[in-house]
């Protein structure tokens, strides 16, 4: 929906958008555009990875959906054995 798109844009851009003119002034147009696309790609990749992880953890736990916090905790609990002891500290 449009609300989802708005929240995604707001979360990705945030107040950092106010620093874009200064960043372009320091980096130049070419490097600024390249950097913007690289960061945009990385953000998109990370969001996609988070959604795929949440989907896989929902299937494993047989729940319809999970919050971000529940996804993080489940990922730590089902992750590598050396990481599992810190699961109680994950919100």
Helix and strand layout, with pairings?
Layout: H1 2-13, H2 20-27, H3 29-61, H4 68-77
Subcellular location: Membrane
GO molecular function: L-amino acid transmembrane transporter activity
Transmembrane segments: 29-51
Largest sheet: none
Distance between the termini: 28 Å
CA radius of gyration is 18 Å
The overall number of domains is 1
Strand content: under 5%
Instruction: Name the overall outline.
Output: elongated
Stretches where pLDDT is under 50 for at least 5 consecutive residues are: none
**What's the order of the H and E elements?**
HHHH
Count helical runs. Answer: 4
Percent of residues in helices: 55-70%
| Secondary-structure content class | mainly alpha
Calculate the mean pLDDT score and round it: 88
Total count of strands: 0
Concise summary:
The chain is an all-alpha fold. The chain has helices spanning 2-13, 20-27, 29-61, 68-77. It has one domain.
Structural description of this entry:
The model has no long low-confidence stretch (mean pLDDT 88). The chain is built from four helices and no strands. α3 packs across α4. The protein is mainly alpha-helical. The protein is 69% helix and 0% strand. The two termini are 28 Å apart. The protein has one domain. The protein has helices at residues 2-13, 20-27, 29-61, 68-77. The protein is elongated and about 50 Å long.
